[in-house]
UniProtKB/TrEMBL annotation:
The keyword ATP-binding is assigned to this record: no
Family per record: Belongs to the DNA polymerase type-Y family.
GO CC aspect terms: nucleus
Record keyword Glycoprotein present: no
Biological process according to GO: DNA repair; error-free translesion synthesis; error-prone translesion synthesis
Organism field: Acanthoscelides obtectus (Bean weevil)
An MF annotation (GO) of this entry: deoxycytidyl transferase activity
InterPro entries xrefs: BRCT_dom, BRCT_dom_sf, DNA/RNA_pol_sf, DNA_pol_Y-fam_lit_finger_sf, DNA_pol_Y-fam_little_finger, IMS_HHH_1, Rev_trsase/Diguanyl_cyclase, UmuC
Keywords, in A-Z order: DNA synthesis
Protein name: DNA repair protein REV1
Classification via Pfam families: BRCT, IMS, IMS_C, IMS_HHH_1
Length: 633
DNA sequence: ATCCTCCCCTAC
DNA sequence: TAAGGTAGGGGAGGAT
């Protein structure tokens, strides 16, 4: 990485990775990222850069600063300045801290800070310039009420020489506060395609070539077809919806009120005051169920939702098909295993009939058809998913807002109060709500109940499809022993293989092992969690409100740059995208990471991967696991 | 002791 | 025609 200002700092990264061995290497053409920022350094500071610190004065005697996050000048420089002028410097808060130095602090953090004054870094610089300690009160970052939260400023640069990355992230709101910045307002997300874009789409179609990321409309088109993008987006939306409904609630729940009225006479269930009941609710094979509303003739058949039409072979116009075709032309010695020419179209959701043959969500179509030759497919219906999700959430919200949104087809609900107030038994409530959702959406769902979220979730698994189950406290112990470890949330492919290598396959097996044994295998936290889970214990509360910590955009599909210019064009769209999402939720940020993966030398097609990630708060890193689990990157 | 960076892993 | 996104928990190992 070039550029001193970025160096070693949490600022911006551009990394290329050899996918085969995981080595990191710099990308020379792109490493000039930091030069722009470097040019902005104060001349005053240059003398300390890369040199031994000499004591110049004692004006900061007794002052101990804690630098939080990104500052201008950066922490490096402040450290040198403090040392040169008799002060103490820390990168984190300690008991000796007298001043907190920050250019930009997220609200979350401010709340957590004690009485230490938050001071702009210019206090240090100006004091040195004046040769005496100035009154820090004139440099407070926030003057009590009016906080002007500085922003990460995405300034879109003109593409000129091609020697600069066309996007900068700067955090410069303090020295020159700018409520209204000169940020370019990006065009709306669903804008009409321009003539040029349309033309290029037609050209691509005409040539039978799939669009690549070099195409300016690639990103929007990709998003319109990516089900993973859709469910990620919806997930964030529903978490937000719950937040908003809770904020604006008048405490009035029509669904609940109707239930109370209906139950006015008749026996009421008794609930001990201490017992809380958690409900987990999840749509059955969600995408499939939405499709079946319009295709009742396919009910009862093995069915999968996927982009590909029926067929085992990857279409040669698809990326996978093209990859295979290219591979065929290699010399025998050059060939690496890229698998059969099966369709690598992913199955988003499959019916329970298909599951009987071993088909699973997330499986490639080619593999699934081998397991289940009768498998039918149906296309996606993004609007349908939104409609059903919306009804699901609105329906539950008419009973209670003690909801933790998990995804577009799933949530946890604390129904303790609801059951008490309505006098319904768990069974009565479950039947009622499942019927209501079925009637309103035409789609079946299942519900599970327990004393905590884990128990509720395991109960849903048992209930599926189209069922309900209450895992009662007395039954938990015996219920858990036979539960496969793979059923536990948080136990995925890697964890499962670690466990099964040691002959552990059920919760009962884990119960017999010591805590330290499991922790040595999985790590401290994961080990403790698993030991608890194996007994049905889960102390994590439901989180009804949610604060997003980061925003990121990744594309790991169809990236085949031939020229650096194409890479810049795509970076431009990615940064526009991240910026749009940030402005949409009015989020400010402290930093930015940018990542690039390049193809493994032996990979048959030049595909690379890009990620852009912006975080609000402390952590900011984008990550992807491409290149492992057999994918060809 | 606590934080940071760079990951790995998981869920939907 | 395919569309391998996204957010968060957490660990290893180094810095402070
Ligand atoms: N690898 C995956 C997993 C899920 N989904 C989408 C399609 C699913 O229909 C939806 C909900 O995921 P679930 O895990 O709830 O799975 P289903 O609803 O399909 O089935 P189940 O009845 O097991 O809940 O998310 C996906 O696109 N890709
Ligand atoms: Mg589901
Ligand atoms: Mg689900």
């Amino acid at each position: 990485m070039g550029g001193g200002f970025c160096r070693g700092k949490r600022k911006a990264n551009l990394v290329a990775r050899d996918m085969r061995n995981g080595n990191k290497q710099n990308v020379p053409e792109l490493a000039d990222w930091g030069n722009y920022m470097e040019a902005k350094r104060l001349k005053l500071l240059d003398q300390f850069h890369n040199s031994e610190v000499k004591r110049i004065s004692n004006i900061f005697e007794g002052i101990s600063i804690f630098v939080n996050g990104l500052t201008r000048p950066p922490a490096d420089e402040l450290k040198n300045l403090m040392a040169a002028h008799g002060g103490e410097f820390h990168m984190y808060q300690s008991s000796s801290t007298t001043h907190l130095i920050a250019s930009n602090l997220p609200n979350v953090k401010i709340k957590n800070l004690g009485r230490v004054p938050i001071v702009k870094p210019s206090w240090i610089v100006d004091s040195i310039a004046m040769g005496k300690l100035l009154d820090f009160k004139r440099y407070l970052l926030y003057n009590n009420q009016s906080r002007t939260q500085p922003r990460l400023d995405f300034t879109v640069m003109q593409k000129t020489t091609g020697s600069k990355v066309p996007v900068q992230a700067t955090s410069n709101g303090i020295a020159i506060p700018h409520e209204q910045t000169n940020m370019e307002v990006p065009s709306p997300r669903n804008q009409d395609h321009t003539e040029i874009e349309n033309k290029s789409a037609i050209d691509n179609k005409g040539k039978g070539i799939s669009k690549t990321a070099a195409d300016p409309s690639f990103l929007q088109e990709f998003y319109q077809n990516s089900r993973l993008h859709l469910i990620s987006t919806l997930c964030a939306e529903y978490k937000d919806l719950v937040n908003k409904l809770r904020e604006t609630s008048d405490g009035h729940f029509p669904g609940k009120d109707k239930l109370i009225a209906k139950k006015a006479e008749g026996p009421r269930a008794f609930y001990p005051s201490f017992a809380s009941v958690v409900m987990h609710i999840d749509m059955d094979c969600f995408f499939v169920s939405v499709a079946l509303r319009k295709r009742p003739d396919l009910r009862g058949k093995p069915l999968a939702i996927t982009h590909a039409r029926n067929g085992r072979l990857a279409n040669e116009n698809s990326h996978r098909g093209a990859e295979f075709k290219l591979w065929e032309h290699l010399e025998p010695g050059e060939k690496v295993d890229i698998g059969d020419r099966d369709s690598m179209s992913e199955i988003a959701s499959c019916s329970y009939e298909a599951r009987k043959s071993g088909v699973r969500n997330g499986m490639f179509l080619g593999q699934a058809i081998k397991l289940c030759p009768d498998l039918k497919t149906q296309p996606y219906d993004f609007e349908g998913y939104k409609e059903v999700s919306n009804i699901l959430y609105r329906t539950i919200a008419s009973y209670t807002l003690d909801i933790e949104a998990v995804s577009c087809d799933e949530m946890y609900v604390d129904v303790t109060k609801l059951l008490k107030e309505t006098g319904l038994t768990v069974e009565e409530w479950a039947t009622h709500i499942r019927n209501e959702i079925m009637e309103a959406t035409g789609c079946p769902c299942s519900t599970g109940f327990g004393a905590n979220r884990l128990q509720a979730r395991l109960a849903t698994r048992k209930a599926k499809p189209a069922g309900q189950y209450y895992l009662q406290a007395d039954d938990v112990e015996s219920y858990m022993t036979d539960i496969p470890l793979s059923d536990l949330p948080g136990v995925g492919r890697v964890t499962l293989s670690k466990l099964s290598n040691l002959g552990l396959s059920t919760c009962g097996d884990v119960q017999m092992k010591s805590l330290s044994f499991i922790q040595a295998l999985l790590g401290k936290k994961a080990g403790q969690t698993l030991k608890d889970q194996a007994r049905g214990v889960d102390s994590r509360p439901l989180n009804f409100t949610h604060e997003r910590k980061s925003i990121s955009a990744d594309v790991n599909y169809g990236i085949r740059f031939k020229k650096l210019e194409e890479c810049y064009t795509f970076l431009q769209s990615l940064s526009d995208e991240v910026f749009n999402r940030m402005s949409a939720v009015n989020m400010t940020a402290k930093g930015l990471t940018l990542k690039l993966l390049v193809r493994a030398p032996e990979a048959p097609v030049n595909i690379c991967w890009l990620n852009m990630h912006v975080a609000h708060g402390i952590y900011l890193y984008g990550e992807h696991n491409a290149g492992r689990d057999g994918s060809k990157v």
